[in-house]
Design brief:
The chain has 22 helices and 4 strands. The protein is mainly α.
């Protein structure tokens, strides 16, 4: 701020000016976003070149290069602080950190040195140790003079380079030491990006998980990039005060990353990834609605849970590189291609958020009262990522066994408790008994459940309760009447979404299964004042969509006079419906293929 405003920090201290602060924050975020976009576009070309060079020269020389490049922005910051260089010199040199990232080399080194089952542990420890720098640097800012801190950061970068040069062992045998050989591979490395993109996108599950991971990573970094401008514009915090928040947040991140490994065997990569996304969305929502900076400090103690998905996604990328690379000398280029694609999201999304923030923080936009909208958009994006991840097959990225397809001819009644209707004349009791039987028996028979719409419904209910609890226990009337109105509107909006899902999607279904590769709802319906029960399989959603196959008969066929459900009878009818559905589905698929 001081560099932009002629040496005066208008966001804190004696020169504080709320309007000038918001104007300066708008200018700073716009300038940062422009340089990040330029660096990101260049990194799409340079990252594959780094990966190709690592396959030729080995990993260690490239490590030294990355740490050397990280020293340049630190020296530029020293020039800005001590020698009155333009702050745009620092912005320009910061592009080197994007063009020559150390992350790709660290992942390559982990891939070379560890077994697949140990990668999540090493990746988590790498993130934890990386967080220690995030604790050390803000701590220096907090306790030491700002100009001296900048010099210490420059020395720290130099120390990192010396450690890499002297202590880091080579994990990959170099193929060549000739610079001409590496330069001849430059164009090939650039072409590898376009050659490998169709290859990476050839499998639907792989394509989905990578796009999901890239988008989630970009969203997380984008919201972090506007956290300091948000706190400075809303609470007027200084750099020293904000550093305390960073210390707490990164310490929480380090603790969580050290604790992630014991949960792997029980949760699996997919569950860890989803949990990290959910915690990240909750953190953003809490930060956005925080009434004071002191509350933010308390929330930062649990902010590390939002970073759980990072090591899981890195492990997925390394596992994919092992399985997709045709030779050991191709792993660097392939992993670099993945990271180049990820860098598209990592680089383009923060400037997008910063541009949005610069618009809404401006005094001309309702006095800057809408500055929290970019964070609200981040919560929405994380929520979408969770829904997409839950939509993927459970065995993808999981340590659990792969579920097998069930053959209808092999259906046998599993051992389940007898189900009894308390009142034979109560439609509710009859439907409850049938629902309990299907939910107990079908998963034990090997049918794979699909919880996508159920999870959406649960999350919408959680959001409704969050709006209600926040309005009830945090906000005060009449001081916060605008925010109370927003919470009430949000509660009824998401409640309406739950009602629409119940009306047009769930309907009368008792569970959702995978049958013949299709998501199918098992509908059990009884009309009022009727003795007939209809069981159907439905794959379409909508107000007028009915079950594709169904069977209706008297409820007395399934229940005896004492109210006990005849499990063999109802399972036999269900088996016939599954056979009929699979037959019609295969016929429909053949017709579509013939039309193409």
């Amino acid at each position: 701020m001081a560099s932009i405003n002629g040496g005066k920090d208008v966001c804190c201290g004696p020169a504080f000016d709320a309007i000038a602060c918001k104007t300066s924050m708008s200018l700073a975020t716009r300038a940062t976003s422009v340089f990040q976009v330029v660096g990101g576009i260049a990194s799409i070309l340079t990252i594959p070149m780094i990966g190709r060079a690592a396959d030729i020269y080995g990993r260690k020389p490239l490590f030294v290069l990355t740490f050397l490049c990280s020293e340049v922005p630190a020296l530029a910051l020293v020039g800005v602080t001590h020698f009155n260089f333009s702050v745009y010199v620092y912005f320009a040199t910061s592009m080197l950190l994007q063009m020559v990232p150390a992350l790709s080399l660290f992942l390559l080194w982990i891939n070379d040195c560890t077994a697949p089952e140990d990668r999540i542990k090493i990746s988590a420890r790498f993130e934890a140790f990386k967080s220690m720098e995030g604790i050390f640097v803000p701590l220096m800012v907090k306790v030491i003079n700002g100009e001296l801190t900048v010099s210490l950061i420059a020395y720290l970068r130099l120390l990192e380079m010396m450690i890499a040069l002297c202590c880091l062992k080579e994990s990959f045998q170099p193929r060549s030491t000739r610079a001409r050989h590496a330069l001849s591979q430059t164009w090939k490395a650039v072409k590898d990006v376009w050659r490998d993109v169709p290859r990476l996108c050839s499998f639907k599950a792989t394509r989905s998980i990578f796009l999901l991971g890239f988008f989630a990573t970009g969203t997380g970094l984008a919201t972090i990039s506007i956290l300091f401008p948000f706190c400075k514009a809303r609470f007027g915090v200084s750099r020293q005060t904000f550093s305390l928040l960073l210390i707490i947040q990164t310490a929480s991140n380090a603790v969580v990353q050290f604790c992630i490994t014991p949960r792997l065997k029980r949760w699996g990569l997919r569950c860890i990834f989803a949990t990290g996304l959910a915690c990240g969305a909750a953190n953003l929502l809490a930060f956005m609605l925080s009434p004071s900076f002191s509350v933010l400090l308390g929330l930062a103690t649990v902010a590390g849970f939002g970073s759980m998905g990072g090591p899981a996604f890195q492990t997925l990328m390394m596992d994919f590189v092992d399985s997709a690379a045709t030779s050991e000398t191709e792993r660097g280029a392939l992993l670099a291609t993945l990271l180049a694609l990820q860098n598209l999201f990592v680089v383009l999304m923060p400037p997008l958020y910063q541009a949005i923030f610069s618009v809404f923080v401006s005094p001309s936009m309702y006095g800057g009262r809408l500055m929290a909208l970019p964070m609200a958009f981040g919560v929405f994006c994380q929520f979408v990522c969770i829904l997409v991840l839950l939509r993927l097959s459970p065995e993808f990225g999981s340590s659990s066994r792969v579920l097998c397809n069930v053959s209808v001819n092999d259906m046998e009644l599993p051992e389940v408790d007898e189900k009894k209707a308390g009142n034979l004349y109560s439609k509710t009791d009859l439907l409850k008994a049938v629902s309990e039987f299907f939910n107990d028996a079908l998963p034990r028979m090997g049918f794979q459940e699909d919880h996508f719409w159920t999870n959406i419904r649960i999350m919408l209910c959680i959001i409704c309760c969050s709006f209600g609890c926040y309005a009830q226990f945090v906000l005060k009337f009449p001081k916060d009447r605008i925010y109370i109105g927003v919470c009430v509107a949000g509660y009824f909006l998401f409640s309406a979404m739950v009602a629409l899902i119940d009306m047009f999607v769930i309907k009368t279904s008792v569970m959702c299964l995978k049958v013949g590769g299709e998501t199918v709802f098992v509908d059990v319906t009884m009309l009022p004042f009727s003795q007939d029960m209809e069981i159907g399989l439905r794959k379409r959603i909508g107000p007028k969509k009915k079950a594709e196959v169904s069977y209706k008969t008297s409820v007395g066929r399934y229940f005896d006079s004492d109210g006990y459900l005849g499990q063999e009878e109802i399972l036999a009818e269900f088996s016939k419906l599954v056979k009929k559905f699979e037959k019609e589905h295969s016929k429909e698929a053949a017709e579509k293929k013939k039309e193409k």
